[in-house]
Amino acid sequence: MVKPACVSCGEREVSEDGYCLSCGHRQPGVRDHQAFVAGPVVAVTDKGRRHRHNEDAVAIGTGAGGVAVLVVCDGVSSTAGSAEASLRAAAAARDLLVGALGGDGRTNEGTADAVVGADAVVPTPEPASPPLPPASPVPLPVLLERAVQVAQDEASASPDLYAANPGDGGPPSSTFVAVVARPTADGAELATAWVGDSRAYWVGSDGASRLSTRDHELAGSLVRWLGADSLDPRPDIEVSAVAGPGHLVVCSDGLWRYAAEPAELRELLRRLSDDGRSGLDLASGLVDHANEQGGHDNITVALWSNHDDWPDGATTPAAPPRGGEPQ
């Protein structure tokens, strides 16, 4: 088996812990930077500039009738095993939602056909519970509650994640946000569930933009999260209708702390679109912005649009490349 060459000097002598034995450059991990496409949904996750590892995870998919599923989990870096916990939680929630909504298009971190710019892969976690039958009549708030429960099960019922690297921070833990988005004749229906401080925004092309979530935070500290030591893993759930064209942005705090207000995020999206970015490139532009501002945390963004263009003509393609094709 030929070992991969160092990304810096080109030598093939790379140590088991990921450092080049010639120049000392640390090799990128499989989760350092990844990009995904699932139908009309795109996502990018990046470790940022200050963290050694990426504890964020993103899982996206599609259901029947143009439904989009976007899940973002932010593993708490101070707790050992949170990178794996966030990945398992995101994939389990996405799988339940996609299965229940009659879809089979799904992409998440760890699938070999979804990784961009990396040869190694992380095995895809199995769903925490069997998906519901396609086209389930279960109301969306109930489905989202079930999705959060399987995510909580994955984040808390994995003692091996903590036992392998015990630390003072406690067991693995993660935030959670999931949105089921459905295009309508005059806009979109958005069903959102969240635990913690990962967020979902609706950014309307006509200027009507809003933050759909409210952080579970007090004095700068989380008061709700997923994990074995969570005192309150219950989600808040909101179902709303939005009018007109726009973008749904689901993200970790690695992005929103650099564009927290809906108006700021809308202006950033408009500027990136004016620069010719669209689809996956538009999501990458949001991540690039966070890194340019310092990249103090891991950065993850999942993006969906119910329209083809901004009023000024900047476009987002209606049909991005098929899930898994490298960009």
Give a topology summary.
Layout: E1 33-38, E2 41-46, E3 56-62, E4 68-74, H1 82-100, E5 105-108, H2 140-156, H3 159-163, E6 173-174, E7 176-184, E8 187-195, E9 199-204, E10 210-211, E11 217-218, E12 221-222, E13 226-227, E14 236-243, E15 246-251, H4 253-256, H5 262-274, H6 279-292, E16 299-305
Antiparallel strand pairs: 1-2, 2-16, 3-4, 3-5, 4-7, 6-13, 7-8, 8-14, 9-10, 9-15, 11-12, 15-16
Report on this structure:
There is one protein chain. This protein has 6 helices and 16 strands. The chain is globular, with a radius of gyration of 19 Å. The protein is α+β, with helices and mostly antiparallel strands and 327 residues long. It has 2 domains: 1-30, no CATH class; 33-305, PPM-type phosphatase domain (Phosphatase 2c, domain 1, 4-Layer Sandwich). The model is unreliable at 109-136 and 309-327 (pLDDT under 50). Helices cover 22% and strands 26% of the residues. It has a 6-stranded antiparallel beta sheet. A 6-stranded antiparallel beta sheet has the order 5-3-4-7-8-14, covered by helices on one side. The two termini are 27 Å apart. Helix 1 runs antiparallel to helix 2 (140-156).
User: What is the CATH superfamily classification of the largest domain?
Assistant: PPM-type phosphatase domain
Q: For the CA atoms, what is the radius of gyration?
A: 19 Å
How many helices in DSSP terms?
6
Low-confidence stretches: 109-136, 309-327
What's the mean pLDDT score? 80
CATH class of the largest domain: Alpha Beta
Number of domains: 2
List the helices and strands in order.
EEEEHEHHEEEEEEEEEEHHHE
What kind of sheet is the major sheet?
Answer: 6 strands, antiparallel
Q: In what order do the strands lie side by side in the largest sheet?
A: 1-2-16-15-9-10
Which structural class fits the helix and strand makeup? alpha+beta
How much helicity do the residues have?
10-25%
Named CATH topology of the largest domain = Phosphatase 2c, domain 1
CATH architecture of the largest domain: 4-Layer Sandwich
- Secondary structure: number of strands: 16
**First and last CA, distance:** 27 Å
